[in-house]
Design brief:
It contains 31 helices and ten strands. Helix 24 packs antiparallel against helix 26. The chain has a five-stranded parallel sheet. A three-stranded antiparallel sheet has the order 8-10-9. The radius of gyration is 29 Å and the shape is globular. The longest helix has 19 residues. It has 710 residues and is mainly α. This is Tetratricopeptide repeat protein. GO terms for molecular function: ADP binding. InterPro entries: NLR-like (IPR053137), P-loop_NTPase (IPR027417), TPR-like_helical_dom_sf (IPR011990).
């Protein structure tokens, strides 16, 4: 026997497999899919002026973009700072300019960036809003959708997956594939062939002596001779990133310009950063962090001499975060004054930009981005006495950038951009109290992602943050448990009910033992757990837990708190028709009015309560009332979330029921036909949600309007 729960999360027990098509807890959902504003422009900041000594690899890449070619994948690998991205960028510009190919550029540095970028690729190639929304919400395989549209592309393309230094991210989602319609180029530090099956590997190393010297001459042509440039290049290991930083320094000195001879003397005299710091690995002379450190410390010394110490402070602050696009808005907060005067931040940033120590990039939001090797070397060389204040400042900036009370709403690209920085900050911090503060903000970021419907990113953020902090804070630390609870909530939204149930039961048991049954964190986990129990057939257990949660929230938070009202609203879904009219002496059916008075008519919880009440009215046979309520809710959801969002389709499905129940079967058929069509596009024809909707449509067309059971 198979059991299907659809529309309002009704579930049926079965002796064999159980399939649950849908359950919505109204009040935690959000809006349409999103991603970077453009995947047509490489997000690399300042492009290389001239690319030296890469002619052979460029010829191989260019051959793949010729007529009749396609299906190739190339992996450009080498140590950080060797210019892999510069090679990919040069090929990208050539393929789009000379060959007219569509260029698609995606950051593959972390899961959230990769998924958002690849879904933007699918949108660029013609995927519809419903399909993208379902993929973002984890309701259909995202990689399959992307490659389906890449394979169908009417135009040949070039796809660059940049900074894929964690190839397991590509493997886990099966993101790296080939297509006869285009060429794929990956840049990475990881050279293991087992990570890149079917791809052609190309090593990108340091530059030959003559080319390395010419890079310095390209950037600072009047600073010295070719031989002097070659001497500096050898001293810097001929690493392109270090050469770029050195050339930028030499070309931008105005008041007291340095010659290459002067620069080389400072290098030889040992005026460089000591990268062997507490907790840092001992570095060889050839380590790219050491080579880069030779250059940026001289630049910062020059800033100090010119009366601009804030540039060093800002660079050390940036080194607390990840080498990914960092929204400029994060730096534009009063909290930055903990490390440098806010009024001097603009000047400090301009100095770093001028010396190529960071770059401006636009990925839908204006950002700065610095090379990972540079940030690692700066972090390792930061004086130990400065670290606590830098960490505190970074956490406060991060805290100011994340919504205080995350709510359902339109897609916000800043949320996804913050994910890698949240995790990088957790890796940098050692102090337990500061780490707990950072974890609390990362958990709030997960909540915000969850409420935009990005359940995969929400789960990955909460899980990764808890994993990073558990060893230092302990598995039963309050904030670690709260992060685990949010991971469980996201698992539920992803349809992974078994994992969600086990995780939430374990977390709630620990919270109850440590903090008490009526602690807000315990109650939050309890609310999430009852949602899962209701969907796996444990209805009585879910109802008992929900009643306990409501009582606890009344006591801890008050009767008018949004969380208390949200839990009471869930009763309208779990209770049968005969019980709902008796609940709270009949007051439960008036809950939407109570929510509107306490929170406002457009509050997420108020809309959810109205939707749940409409279902209860339908079960009671009060079809006119149910129809009016459902129509208003459906229109509100469509305005706020769009027509393809699951919550809007669920409301439309209920409207089809009420229309048919009132005798307007043709109207019900029209509404359900649209629901089925949108679910087939978004989820595929065989998804349980789609099957359940098609079954309801069949009852309408066969003359059985699908009235509720007595």
């Amino acid at each position: 026997m198979d059991g299907h729960a659809e529309d309002r999360g009704r579930v049926y027990q079965s002796s064999g497999d159980q399939h649950i098509s849908e359950h919505h807890h109204y009040g935690e959902e959000a809006a349409a899919p999103g991603g970077p504003d453009s995947v047509r422009r490489p997000a690399i900041g300042r492009p290389p002026a001239v690319l030296r000594d890469r002619a052979e690899v460029l010829r191989r890449l260019q051959a793949s973009a010729g007529a009749g070619h396609g299906g190739e994948a190339y992996v450009l690998y080498g140590m950080g700072g060797c210019g892999k991205t510069a090679v990919a960028y040069t090929f990208f510009q050539w393929a789009t300019g000379e060959r007219g190919r569509v260029g698609l550029w995606v950051s593959a540095s972390d899961r959230a960036s990769l998924r958002a970028g690849m879904l933007a690729v699918a949108a660029d190639r013609g995927a519809g809003d419903g399909e993208l929304l379902a993929a973002r919400n984890g309701l259909r395989p995202a990689a399959d959708l992307v490659w389906q549209y890449l394979d169908r592309s009417a135009e040949p393309w070039v796809l660059v997956l940049d900074n894929a230094d964690q190839p397991e991210i590509l493997r886990d989602g099966s993101w790296l594939r080939t297509s006869p319609r285009g060429t794929v180029v990956v840049t990475t530090r990881r050279s293991g062939a087992h990570w890149w099956p079917g791809a052609e590997l190309q090593y990108i190393g340091v530059l030959p002596r003559e080319d390395a010297a010419q890079v310095l001459r390209d950037l600072a042509p009047h600073s010295g001779t070719h031989e002097e440039a070659a001497r500096i290049a050898e001293r810097l290991g001929r690493l392109p990133l270090a050469l770029t930083l050195a050339g930028g320094f030499l070309s931008r000195q105005v008041l007291d310009p340095w010659t290459m001879e002067t620069y080389a003397r400072h290098l030889d005299e040992g005026q460089r950063v000591d990268l062997i710091d507490q907790g840092a690995d001992a570095l060889s002379e050839e380590d790219p962090r050491r080579l880069v450190g030779l250059t940026w410390q001289l630049t910062l010394d020059a800033f100090e001499a010119r009366g601009l110490p804030e540039a060093a402070a800002l660079l050390r602050l940036l080194a607390r975060f990840a080498p990914e696009p960092l929204p400029l808005s994060l730096l534009n907060h009063a909290e930055i004054s903990g490390s440098l005067p806010r009024a001097r931040c603009e000047t400090a940033l301009r100095a770093l930009l001028d010396q190529s120590l960071t770059e401006l990039v636009d990925v839908g939001a204006r950002c700065v981005q610095s090379h990972g090797i540079l940030l690692d070397s700066v972090a390792a060389a930061t004086p130990a006495e400065n670290v606590p204040l830098l960490n505190t400042t970074a956490v406060r900036l991060f805290d100011a950038a994340v919504p205080r009370l995350p709510d359902a709403g339109p897609y916000d690209p800043l949320l996804r951009l913050l994910v890698p920085h949240a995790l990088a900050l957790l890796r940098r911090i050692d102090d337990p109290s500061t780490l707990a503060e950072a974890l609390a903000v990362a958990t709030r970021l997960s909540v915000a992602l969850h409420r935009t419907g990005d359940y995969l990113s929400a789960w990955e953020t909460a899980r990764a943050a808890a994993d990073l902090c558990e060893r230092r804070l302990g598995a039963e630390h309050r904030i670690v448990l709260a992060a685990r609870s949010r991971a469980g909530r996201a698992l539920f939204r992803l349809g992974r009910y078994t994992g969600a149930e086990l995780l939430l039961e374990r977390v709630r048991a620990a919270q109850e033992r440590l903090f008490g049954a009526d602690d807000p964190d315990t109650l939050d986990s309890g609310h999430g757990l009852q949602l899962v129990l209701g969907n796996v057939g444990r209805r009585d257990d879910a109802l008992a837990l929900l009643r306990s949660t409501i009582a606890g929230r009344r006591t801890a938070l008050g009767p008018a708190h949004p969380l208390t009202l949200r839990s009471r609203s869930s009763l309208l879904v779990l209770l049968s028709a005969d019980r709902v009219v008796r609940e709270e002496d009949g007051a439960l059916l008036h809950l939407p009015s109570e929510c509107a008075r306490a929170l406002g008519p457009d509050h997420t919880v108020t809309l959810g309560a109205r939707h749940n009440r409409a279902w209860a009215l339908y079960l009671l046979g009060r079809f006119d009332d149910a129809d009016r309520e459902t129509r208003l809710v459906t229109e509100a959801y469509r305005r706020r979330f769009g027509p393809d969002y699951p919550i809007a389709l669920s409301a439309q499905q209920l409207l089809a029921r009420t229309r048919a129940a009132l005798g307007h079967v043709d109207a019900g058929i029209e509404l359900m036909t649209d629901v089925v069509s949108r679910r087939e596009r978004g989820l595929g024809p065989d998804h349980p949600f789609t099957i359940a909707s098609r079954q309801l449509l069949n009852t309408f067309t066969s003359g059985r309007p699908g009235l509720p059971e007595a």
